[in-house]
Design goal:
Structural class: mainly alpha
Strand order of the largest sheet: 1-2-3
Helix content: 40-55%
Radius of gyration: 21 Å
Number of strands: 5
Strand content: 5-15%
Largest sheet: 3 strands, parallel
Bound molecules: adenosine-5'-tetraphosphate
Length: 330
């Protein structure tokens, strides 16, 4: 049974519809077809500055949302990255075989560092830690959005290079990117991706938004000139984005939606979509609060997940340490 691993950063109080449709929905589905490892990547979340109290809160909020969307600790290994020290240990080894130029080509670093006054070295080496996350678990597939494709390529390059230099150790992982939902766009700027750190609040639907707030954001989403509801990414990126969201959440194809709204206006369409979005996220928000009501139980569950993860991670790291000539950790 193939292995899947993916992670998500606890950088906000809530995940958004882009995270959910681009990646998290696939996480849920792959629990039944794969040996699944999912982690809240809090080590990654400190690379752009952070507040410790908020990090604790967001770590739990992230785990609660993952359970709320349907991850089941009996069917997957759900854990927090900082509880598995092997991630940083492997990252150091991989950093030593990563070229400076190679790391400098990562577009996410270029984009994110350009927006900061002082970008950290941690932000620069982020993709190397991500490679370690993936390679520790002999991962076959990594369900992610389009923005992570380049990092996955780096991961494969590093795995191949390590294998060639020190002997076969790592499996080469493949990205699992669902094309239709690989890039959900900002509701206020449909040419940009919906993003926790870049979008204005009105541009993002959060999974923890109240029904009223979510509906309002959908109803005030930027749409294009013209009146027709047709899927045309080039000329009508706003409507195309809304059609994508509608189609996936309601389980209706885009041609069916185009037919349904022929001759109707944007207002009708957005009103109906608002209902669909609220119906999808309201139960997630409610269940998230239920899990958050018992933080001790949540922490216990995550610690059990970390134990399961470590059973795999320590074996991989021991092999890596042998291969590179390190003494074993005691
Ligand atoms: N707009 C999106 N459409 C489709 N997939 C998306 N993902 C993120 N935004 C979209 C996917 O969500 C997963 C988790 O992402 P992350 O926690 O690593 O954060 P990110 O990719 O950096 O996403 P954000 O929302 O833009 O966060 P910030 O702004 O904090 O960096 C990934 O699989 C990602 O592909």
């Amino acid at each position: 049974i193939p292995r899947v691993l993916s992670g998500i950063q606890p950088t906000a109080e809530s995940f958004h519809l882009g995270n959910y449709l681009g990646a998290l929905r696939q996480w849920v589905a792959m629990q039944d077809t794969h040996d699944a490892f999912y982690c809240v990547v809090d080590l990654h979340a400190i690379t752009a500055g952070h507040d410790p109290e908020a990090l604790v809160r967001r770590r739990r909020a992230s785990a609660a949302q993952l359970l709320a969307i349907g991850l089941d600790p009996d069917r997957c290994t759900l854990f927090v990255q900082s509880q598995v020290p092997e991630h940083t240990q492997l990252s150091w080894v991989l950093g030593a075989i990563t070229g400076f130029g190679e790391a400098s080509r990562m577009t996410q670093f270029k984009d994110k560092s350009a927006k900061q006054e002082r970008a950290s070295v941690g932000l620069f080496t982020y993709p190397i830690l991500q490679a370690a996350d993936i390679l520790l678990y002999d991962t076959d597939e990594v369900p992610v959005g389009e923005d992570q494709r380049q990092h996955l390529e780096l991961t494969r390059d590093l795995a191949g290079r390590f294998n060639k230099t020190f002997g076969k150790t790592f499996r080469l992982p493949k990205p699992h990117i669902v094309k239709d939902t690989a890039k959900i766009c900002d509701l206020q700027d449909p040419t940009a991706k919906m993003s926790k750190s870049n979008s204005v609040p009105a541009g993002i639907v959060d999974l923890r938004d109240t029904p009223k707030a979510a509906a309002k954001k959908i109803r005030s989403a930027v749409t294009d000139t013209g009146r027709e509801i047709v899927f045309d990414e080039e000329n009508k990126p706003g409507i195309a984005n809304l059609l994508t969201i509608f189609s996936v959440l309601a389980g209706v194809t885009i041609p069916e939606l185009e037919a349904r709204y022929q001759g109707k206006g944007y207002g009708d369409f957005k009103g109906d979509l608002a209902d669909v979005v609220v119906e999808a996220i309201a139960p997630i928000a409610r269940r998230t609060e239920e899990y958050l009501a018992d933080p001790a139980q949540l922490d216990k569950l995550l610690t059990e997940g970390a134990r399961k993860a470590r059973a795999v991670a320590t074996a991989t790291l021991a092999d890596v340490y042998d291969k590179v000539g390190f003494a074993q950790p005691v």
